[in-house]
Amino acid sequence: MIFPGGKKMNKIMVELGDRSYPIYSGSGILEQLPQLLQPVAANKQVAVISSPPVAGFYLEEITRMLEPGFNVQIYSVPDGESSKSLDQIEQIYSWLISNRFERGSTVLALGGGVIGDLAGFAAASFLRGINLVHLPTSLLAQVDSSIGGKVGVNHRLGKNLIGAFYQPRFVLADHALLATLPDEEFICGMGEVVKYGAIYDPELFADIEKHVDVLHQSESKYLPGIVGRCAAIKAEVVSKDEKEGGLRAILNFGHTFGHALEAYYEYGGLKHGQAVLLGMKCAAWVSGETGLADPESVTRFNQLVDRFDVRLPKHKPYPETDALIESMRLDKKVTGGRIKFILMEEIGQIRGVFLDDMQPVRAAFDRIIAQDAEKQQ
Ligand code: NAD
Ligand code: GLY
Q1: Of these four, 132, 174, 204, 235, which has the most CB atoms within 10 Å of its CB?
Q2: 5/2 Cα distance (integer angstroms)
Q3: Tens digits of per-residue pLDDT, 340-365?
Q4: Which atom of ligand 2 is the closest one to the Cα of 147?
Q5: Mutate-to-test residue for ligand 1 from 30, 50, 54, highest number of ligand atoms within 8 A of CB
Q6: Of 152-161, 168-177, 178-187, 202-211, minimum mean pLDDT range
Q7: Residues 84, 134, 150, 216: which is the catalytic one?
Q8: CB of 160 closer than 6 angstroms to any ligand 1 atom
C-alpha cells in the first residue's frame, strides 16, 4: 500500500482467526504509528517499554508523534539479555499498577528481541492480558521475534523457559531504524535470515548468498525484499501452527545447539543470533554425519554461515561437550527424555529427528570449538 508522501508500506497478515494481525514493513513508515494505534489503544493509555540505546535514538520522535492523541508513559529497562528475567517483569508490573494501567491500555514494545519478549510477557500476563504492539528495531526482531506471539523470560536454569503465546495487535517494522544497528547485531539477525532460506526457501537462500556483503549498507536495495520474505515465511508458518504442534518446530533449526552454548556462557558474551549461527553449523554437520543431508548441501550451507565471523567468548574456558548435551536435555522440545533435533535434508527442506546416538552431536560441538581455537592462532 502507498500512503501520503509516496512511501511504500507492505502488509503481511498472520492469519489466526479473530486474533489475526498485520505486519507492516517498509522504510520510513514509523510516522504511520499514530494512525495505526488509533483503533487499538482504546483508552489512549500507552506504555512504551524500551531500553537504551534504542530509546535514545527513537523515543523522542515517537513520543512527539503520539502525544497529541495518546497518554504516553515510558518505562526503561537496562539493555541486554539479563533483563529478560522474572525480576524485571515484577518491576514492570509494579510500575503498571502504580500508574493505573487498565485492561484497555496498550504496551508498545520498542526495541530488539529482548524488549519484545519481556514487554510482550508483561502485556500477556498483566490483568490477564492487555494490548500489545511490537515496534521491532533490530534485524532479528523484524524478521523473527516480533512475529508469532512467543513472549517470555529466561530462568537461571535455561533460556525462555517461562512464557506464553500472546499475539500482538500489529507489528510495525521500519527498516530505516536498522541504520543505527551495530554491525555485530546485524550479523545476529542474519543468523535468523539464513535460517529462513535453509528451512523453507532455497531461492531466498540463493539470494542471500548473492547479496550478503551489501545487505547492511544504508539504503541497501536488497534488504527490504529479503526481510519481507523472512517475515512472510514466519507469518505463514505461525498461521499454520501457532502453538508449535508440528510445523513451527522448523523455526528452531540450530537453536537447540545454540541455546546450550548460550546457557554455558550464562547469556553473556555470546549473543542469541551468534549462538544460532554456530548452532545451525552444528545441525548441518549432524545432518551430514547421520546421512540425512548430502555433503554438498552441508558444505554450501556452512560456507554461507562462515561469511559471518562469530567467536566463542574468552571469559570462560571452552565448554565440555558432555555438559552441553546435558544442557540440551532442558530444551522445550525434549519429549520423554529424548531430544528432538531439527535437521536439514537439503537447503530449504528440514526434518525433526530423535537421535539415540549422541556421538555426531558431540563431534559437532568439538568441531565448533576446534575451529574457534584455530581462529585464535
Ligand atoms: P537485543 O534485543 O538484545 O538487541 C540487540 C542489541 O541491539 C541491544 O543492545 C539493543 O539495544 C540494540 N539495538 C536494537 N535495535 C537497535 C537499533 N535500531 N539501533 C541501535 N541499537 C539497537 O537482541 P536481539 O538480537 O534483537 O534479540 C535477541 C532476543 O530475542 C533473545 O532473547 C532471543 O531469545 C529472542 N528471540 C525471541 C524470538 C521469539 O519468537 N519471541 C525469536 C528469536 C529470538
Ligand atoms: N523463533 C522460533 C519461533 O518463533 O517459533
Answers
A1: 132
A2: 8
A3: 999 999 999 999 999 989 999 999 99
A4: 4
A5: 54
A6: 152-161
A7: 150
A8: yes
